[in-house]
Amino acid sequence: MTRLQQKIDDRMQRAEQSGLLRRRQKLLQSVGCANRLVHQGSIKHNFASNDYLGLSQSPELIEALGEGARLYGVGSGASPLVTGYSDAHAELEQALCEATGHEAALLFSSGFSANSALMKTLLDKESVVVADKLIHASLIDGLLESGAQLKRFAHNDVGAAKRLVDKHQPLALVTESVFSMDGDLAPIDELYGLAKGNGAWLIVDDAHGFGVLPQGGHNRVDASCCDIQIVTFGKALGCQGAAILGSNAGIDFLVAHARDYIYSTALSPASAHVALKAVSLTQDGERRGKLAQVIEAFKLAAKARGLELLGSQTPIQPLVVGDIDKLAKVDRELKAAGFWVGAIRPPTVPQGSARLRITLNVKHTQAELEALADQLQRALQD
Ligand code: PMP
């Protein structure tokens, strides 16, 4: 056996023994049905996807994908600075700028790539960055690659962030708008005030907020409350890809220096056309309003059954179980009863906080929400 194969086998064995080995499962989305999926021929209630507005299965986006392919073809054919940047991309960038008030945008094939490219291109080993403890792996990976000094503050603790800012005078503060595993909101306005008052940028990963949080007013994320905003298309927008939004100067810098942008095939123009349609569908607020009703209904159903949720106001509703063996048991029982819920274990979440990550979408019915709450109550009791 080769040395590398031996190393791989050892690591897999250790992960298996600790009960933390990750494996894929083949699942089929039911077309037109964001609240269902099919596993080994059996239909489950889908409470695990990030398709908050049900757009991934919507007739509008299915139509837009065909239209995009007819207009522009399927592939972009090259990286953006060669021949891969087209009207499809420019129109999407323009729509995102209009929706958020930022001057310019830059498209990537995934949020992971956008986040890590942003961090490693803007920052270097002379840079200091202050970031929330719970920011996404893609931001952390980019920061590690940049060599920047990373100072992390306790989750959503503005006082702790201020102490780090006063001491280190960082180039940037980094947070998420809606935290992916807790579903809670960052104190964006306070962090922006802190950044501005200290000559730093505020960078907000809005992966789980765009299309979900209100536009304008309290809890919005746009150019009025951050310097850079990352929007991903795989969540509320129901498709794929991502954009970094910011000033003309900032985006020009990234176009010229971001290796992940320069040396990677551009986002497919058909995908850009789908995302453009998705952005337009989220503008009127109707789907957001429906989602808010589903969230409220689930919280009431959970409360009536004594389930202790974390108090999130977003479609991400975690229920901390703690012990990984108990989580595995609850997860098995939920699946057997027809409910597919995210079972999230360390290291994705901190040790001791293994949890069910229940995600809601506009297609969930009152009856489904009540049935899930009943089943959670049963599974957690024994
Ligand atoms: N940021 C956050 C907060 C996320 O949850 C994710 C996806 N898990 C990403 C970025 C990466 O986005 P994408 O899935 O488009 O790569």
Automatic annotation (TrEMBL):
Listed pathway(s): Cofactor biosynthesis; biotin biosynthesis
Molecular functions per Gene Ontology: 8-amino-7-oxononanoate synthase activity; pyridoxal phosphate binding; transaminase activity
InterPro entries per the UniProt record, alphabetical: Aminotrans_II_pyridoxalP_BS (IPR001917), Aminotransferase_I/II_large (IPR004839), AON_synthase_class-II (IPR050087), PyrdxlP-dep_Trfase (IPR015424), PyrdxlP-dep_Trfase_major (IPR015421), PyrdxlP-dep_Trfase_small (IPR015422)
Cofactor list: pyridoxal 5'-phosphate
Alphabetized Pfam families for the sequence: Aminotran_1_2
PROSITE patterns, A to Z: AA_TRANSFER_CLASS_2 (PS00599)
GO biological process: biotin biosynthetic process
Keyword annotations: Aminotransferase, Biotin biosynthesis, Pyridoxal phosphate, Transferase
E.C. code: 2.3.1.47
Enzyme class, first EC level, given as a word: transferase
Domain of life: Bacteria
Residue ranges of every copy of the Aminotransferase class I/classII large domain listed in the record: 44-376
Catalytic activity: 6-carboxyhexanoyl-[ACP] + L-alanine + H(+) = (8S)-8-amino-7-oxononanoate + holo-[ACP] + CO2
Family recorded in the similarity comment: Belongs to the class-II pyridoxal-phosphate-dependent aminotransferase family. BioF subfamily.
Subunit organization: Homodimer.
Name the record gives this protein: 8-amino-7-oxononanoate synthase
Organism encoding this protein: Shewanella insulae
